[in-house]
Amino acid sequence: VQLQASGGGLVQPGGSLTLSCATSGFIFDDYAIAWFRQAPGKEREGVACVGSSGERKYYADTAKGRFTVSRNNPKNTAALQMDSLKPEDTGVYYCNSVASWGTTYWGQGTQVTVSS
Question: Could you read off the pLDDT of 6-26 as tens digits, one per residue?
Answer without folding.
Answer: 999 999 999 999 999 999 999
